[in-house]
Amino acid sequence: MRIISILLTFFILLPILVVGGQWLAPRWEVWIHLWNTRLPEMMITTALLTLGVGAGTFLLGTGLAWLVSAYRFPGQTVFEWLLIGPLAMPSFVLAYVYMGLFDFAGPVQKALRAWLGSAAWFPEIRSLGGAILVLSLVLYPYVYVLARAAFLEQAASTFEAARLMGYTRLQTFWKLVLPLARPSLATGVTLAMLEALTDFGAVRFFSVSTISEGIVRLWEGALDRSSALALASLLLVAALLVILLERILRGEARFFQADSHYRRLEPLQLRGVRAWVAALICGCVLVAALGLPLAQLSFWTVQEFGKGTPGIFDAVFYRYLRTSVGLALLASLLAVGLATMLAQYARSTRSRFRAVLTRLATSGYAMPGAVIAAGVLILLSFLDQQKWFSFMLTSSLFGLVYAYVVRFFSLAYNSAEASLEKVTPSLIEAARLMGAGPARILYRIQAPLISSGLAAGVTLVFVDVLKELPATLLLRPFGMDTLAIWAYMAAAESLWSVAALPSLTLLVIGLTAVLFLFRAGKLLL
Amino acid sequence: MMTLQIHNLTKHFPNAKTPAVNRITFSMQEGEILALVGPSGCGKTTTLRLIAGLERPDSGSIAIHGALVASETVFIPPEKRGVGMVFQDHALFPHLSIFENVAFGLQGRKRAEVQAIVSEMLRLVGLESHARRYPHALSGGERQRVALARALAPRPALVLLDEPFSSLDAGLRLEMREQVRDILKVMRTTAIFVTHDQEEALFMGDRLAVFREGEIEQIGAPEQIFHAPVSRFVAEFMGGSDFLPGLTQPEGIETELGLLTQPAPAAKHVELAVRADDIDFALDAEGNATIAGRFFRGAFHVYRLQLDSGRILHAFKEHTCLMPVGARVRAWVSAGHPLAAFDTQS
């Protein structure tokens, strides 16, 4: 068991190590070439994008979470769980929908020009600002979920104590609630920043050249592997910097509410204008992140369906759907299965060694998809070049699934760990004392108790694999197309209405899963 | 035949400085309830887990009904020992109904028999009407009783209870311990009961074993432990004792409160354990103590007396007898039995 766990951790880490290993022997000519071309611009853009998304998700996520957990207003209970929805939105889909809507040729600018004349000014959506807006709208749920949980955890007595000492509700929020929630907020914001680092589709559509975008561009277009690899190693450093930032933001702070019998803060009923303003804020965010794209995608789909365009609910569509679902199912089952093994091992020992082991194995989620894809590619092509090795693994299904498992392993591990925790040692001991052997314990006690948690884990990984782009683009076997690839390719050609159906399908599957899991209390980030 | 025989049982966890359980020996008769009591970390729970087979001893032996279940060469796994256990967290299976929980240990028996046993057990603990419910729908006390019914259902040779009342609040605790003791006695079950609450131990146990740092400091009937503690540790742990220094004389023990005529101990300098009911006092301007405080306890008052040496002793008085704080009094020992004396040197 120990050996298997070590091997598992090793293989999960290997692609990241391969990319990180580039720093051991830097190829200076590649770096000089990169520096002289677009590297400085890429670095600045990446930094601005990451920080911008960090600030945007912090504002949206924290603000909305405070609004729905501290106040009551019309629609608050519905908003509370609908606001999680944008988590299911692939960023590139929102990006091209916004281009379709707000670009120079889009309906919004046309209407403005018709109304105000040709001089009417409108901010350029295809810009860094546009990318920050779109990514913040898609990624704020990371902060929202964690902030809401942190706010709900805070005892009313703490809040009331501050009020009695003369602080207003708003002052208390700034002085007390926010600092207490800092560890959760830091985690949420860094998760969002890491997602911004790994994003590829949205930035490409908005012509924002980040490092992630550069890796895919160099690898695909110019087939310049050494430059792409150098960039990947740089991206790895950027991801590590963000993680370091999280540690700094969290500090040594571990805040616990000591008493388990705490009373939750009673939400304040808002009335009149203020109630409607609160509802309007939540409504606007939801419309911008979900309502508008859903409406536009549905409209495009209906339009194409009317035209009888190929690919709309025909055999081709179902083939893409099958490929996507099959691939996602395979990867998610594998990831959760392996994660459960490792988590089970971790529970059976209490050594420092296994703490380090699980820490390492779950670091994949912080690693951008492009870094993992590059690592897997290097590994596989190295293997394929060996004389003794007779399989062709490069651009095989194996490579792609491997990359997915590495990328989403920590997501799978979190739910595996949470499920296994439900089976306390005393439950197993009680069963044994009543004469149950290992088989009966597995079948009657462990399996029923952990299955729903593991199913939630599989669902989460499934949704993430469905919409994953950079690793899929770089590693997919020739001719293997998924819904995400199809949507991305069509949108890249500005065939927005053709991209609508696969995007809509991804969105509906993801939205159903995310909302269902959130309501069941099983959404673990 | 003895239901349980334990000989020289020792368990030393890796990375621990001292053994968790160190060479303990005791045995139990059929139908007896033994309470293991001691401060936390004294080895009482480890002893329980060793008997259950959830830990493997380093040396020593355990025999149940004369059959060896653990020794240096033998280790019978928990599922084959026929021992029931009530866990501190109750460990009810959350996904099984109350009926299924209690029936869990009865596999391999006929349906009708299982049905009959489970109904009988649930009737015994007063939860017949809850058979179809799930653990989360029960109150703490009800869960407690389900856990007991579940442990008793297969009619184990021995039932182990690991701080079963620690998760209940104070009022319920008093009620539950009476119920549990009655049920154990009705079933004529041999039971070992672990607690860190000395009052609970006195109530529950036919005998008590006081643990200290992995060893049994004293084992015996509750009265014996309470009135004749073998060490200052036991006297202190069993509660309510003040300590009064004394000097051994040929005719008794010389103390601040005068000469106590009782069999003289071997040591010269001793400490006497005195409880509040061993001391009496009366107003006396020429006395040996001052009233430092008075606390109302319902049926009686507890007086806090400061002796002239500065030492504090406590004494009971009827609630009708009121004396002002600050008054001079004369205090004396009115125990009517010899006081436990401990060598100050050891």
Based on the model shown, name its key terms.
heterodimer; A: 525 residues; mainly alpha; MetI-like fold; 23 helices; B: 346 residues; alpha+beta; Rossmann fold; OB fold (Dihydrolipoamide Acetyltransferase, E2P); five-stranded antiparallel β-sheet; globular
Description:
The complex is a heterodimer of chains A (525) and B (346). Chain A has 525 residues and is mainly alpha-helical. Chain A has one domain (2-519): MetI-like fold. Chain A has helices at 2-20, 28-36, 39-70, 76-82, 91-102, 107-116, 128-153, 156-164, 169-180, 182-198, 201-205, 211-222, 225-250, 272-307, 315-348, 352-361, 369-385, 397-421, 425-433, 438-467, 470-475, 483-492, 496-519, and strands spanning 71-72, 268-269. In chain A, strands 1-2 form a two-stranded parallel ribbon. In chain A, helix 1 (2-20) packs across helix 16 (352-361), helix 1 crosses helix 18 (397-421) and helix 5 (91-102) packs across helix 14 (272-307). The longest helix of chain A is centred in the middle third of the chain and has 36 residues, at 272-307. Chain B is α+β, with helices and mostly antiparallel strands and 346 residues long. Chain B folds into two domains: 4-233, 3-Layer(aba) Sandwich (Rossmann fold), CATH 3.40.50; 242-343, Nucleic acid-binding proteins (OB fold (Dihydrolipoamide Acetyltransferase, E2P), Beta Barrel). Chain B contains eight helices and 20 strands. Chain B has helices at residues 44-52, 98-103, 111-124, 140-152, 170-186, 198-204, 222-227, 232-238, and strands spanning 4-11, 21-28, 33-37, 59-64, 67-70, 83-86, 158-162, 191-195, 207-212, 215-220, 241-249, 252-255, 258-260, 269-275, 279-283, 289-296, 300-307, 312-318, 328-333, 341-343. The longest helix of chain B is centred in the middle third of the chain and has 17 residues, at 170-186. Chain B is globular and about 80 Å long. In chain B, 38% of the residues are buried. The mean pLDDT of chain B is 90. Chains A and B meet through helix 19 and helix 20 of A and strand 6 of B.
